[in-house]
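Sanity check

After download, print the first record. It should look like this:
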Amino acid sequence: MEPNVVRFLNDKLYDKRKIGALDLERQIRELVAAKDFPRIQAILEQLCNEYAYAVHQPHARNGGLIGLAAAAIALGPELPRYLEIIVPPVLACFVDQDARVRYYACESMYNIAKVAKGEILRYFNHIFDALCKLGADSELSVKNGAELLDRLIKDIVAESAATYVSVLEAKDPDGPDDQPDPPTAFSLPKFIPLLKDRIGAINPFTRTFLVGWIMLLDSIPDLELVTYLPEFLGGLLKFLSGNNRDVHATTKTCLERFLNEIKRISRIKKGIAESKKSKGDGKRKREESVDSGSMQLAPDEIDEAGSTTANEEDDEDVSSEDDWIPGQDVQINFKAILEILTATLDSPLDSLLESLRWIVSFLDICPEEVLPFTPKILAHLLPAMASGVEPIRQAAARVNTSLMDYIVSLTDETESQQSQPPSRVQTSLNTDRPDGTSSTRASLSSARDVDLRSPTPAQPRSFPTQVPSEYPAADLDYAAAVNSLTLLFLNDHEETRVAALTWLIMLHRKAPRKIVAFNDGTFPALLKTLSDPAEAVVTKDLQLLSQISKNSEDDYFSNFMLSLLQLFSTDRRLLETRGNLIIRQLCMSLSPERIYRTLAETIEKEEDLEFASIMVQNLNNNLITAPELADLRKRLRNLETKARLAHLCIGAELEMTVNILIQIDKLVQLIESPVFTYLRLQLLEPEKYPSVAAPGASNYDRPNRLGVKGREESIIRWDQLLEKFRSVQDRARRAQRLMSGGSPDDVPDLSGLRLADGAADAGGKEPPSRAAAGPPVPQKEAVTQPAAAQKRSTGLGRQFGRLGGAVSGRNRRSQG
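Expected structure tokens:
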């Protein structure tokens, strides 16, 4: 450099440094005109080494920056070959401790970029990184200078990023024709790692800077930034959690543009696929028409027709290849995006809301991609349904509805089972006895089997019943989904627990064999949920347990009943507060007869007599009053057997304890209640309703005749049942004696009070030894007999009456 230039560039005054820069610019222009390139390179190296890199001489650094800018302006078209020397020292000055040096570095880079234009994109990553830091600079002058430089770089990128190739990378005109295409000056794959690193910034100015650049790059169609969306989507979602409203609004606009672009690309691809499919169908139709028409054409006509068809197909192929639509080749990594969205579902409100909005959109765009993420989504989605923020709650409900509808629409195990031939149970329904009368026992068993195989009661939600053919089979991790839903039983919100059970019910309908085995951890959780304070949760839980029992083997049902009794035994409060609800709900969903039979067999083996007594009382009360057991009561009332008049009278053999007297008192109160008014009225018309007449009345012979006239010998083994009853009662009395401190053999002989003759009365035989005990029985039966009947006079009512008469007779004898 000339001596005066060296002196002016080292001056502390800006004006003199400017004069030196103008002199340097004139000198370099002369050297360019003279093509003295070695001298130019020497001057540039002198500017870098003695000025721009002079760390401890701020005035020299400022002079070097303005000198490099003047040299770049003077070089003009020759600048690209010297950018490798000029740009690095300017970039180094961006991090100088002196704010004036940082400002002059922005000014110098602005002038260099204005001359270099597209060539400056070779250093885009370095400039972007420097601007990202300068955008949050504490000095206002530096921020303003960085903003001016940022605008210029954005203009250059928008104009040249997709197509500009550096002159240093251009093809050799004299080279072969098969030279590979040179790379562009701007490389998006090289830029994405830098963006991914910077997207975690916290400063609001830096965030605004990043969002602005992302929106700019996304607006350039040929760059296809949406392909790299997973690399920085998580950072954008975190921007929504900040307190800066400007950043929030800008980020939301950016995300909206990306989502709309994904929707557009999906529509384009779907339209192209449908177009290809329709063209394929048309091609097959033409081939079929040509084949059918060739049978009536001459050979030369066949050749002409075939060539015409081939030409048309070729034309269509060419036109389809030429009709390129922007976006049809863009590949979107839905899996990676969904990974980010599901990981953001536990974020603050705005990020959560945006993630839910994206997921519900993806369920419309590509539901098959969302399916594998169902367990993760459910773990955060269902708690969001109980959020106190209304927009969050509504968005979560939309995602829940869309996801459940899609899973319901998939093919599953039940469809293949529905195509199987009817089971043999249908044949047993029409099985008649040889004499033409239907078997009551067979009808009870058949009705139970039909109930076990009946569809599950309808849910509040309604799902489509027909599965679209284009949907694939369900590729869902059922085990992970069940695990996620089971953990939600511990959630504090009732809505979440109900939603989790609703999901389990739906999943069990689709894949009964994959959901809830008895030996896994889910079944105990379902049993424990029966103690939930919310009645809606308990109802859903019982519905699921009933549904599982319907589709399981008998062993599963027996284990379920046993586990339920064990739960009642250990949690007496649950038995008191929810026992009737649980029994009624189960009877509404399952076969009541099957439930009562299984519970009876289990209670029979129960060693805790107090608990067994309480359970029997609850079961009896529900059997008499529960609307869910109306059909079972009707079948029991219509069960015509020879022993129907006496099989309840064996209750007279029971030792009168306080508990039994309390039960009898409850029975009398029940009969005197308004709901049984019609029974008391029927007792006033014995001629019209002989079946409810007391044994002490004149109509006593009519029930006897009905019993004698009954059907042929029943298959029920009454004698064995009677002996079983007596053995159980004897065991109970002995246990009570032991508990009271007495001897187990100190049991009163109740042989004189046995009512075995009751069965004989039903059959028309009366042993003489019961003549003295006979009057008390009919004397009491007229009052208490209709207790078990609810709507009409039945055998069950008379049997309760006989029980009451036996109790009255025994009490009177004891008083005498």
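If your output differs, re-run the checksum step. Summary of this record's structure: The domain at 3-170 is CATH 1.25.10.10 (Leucine-rich Repeat Variant).
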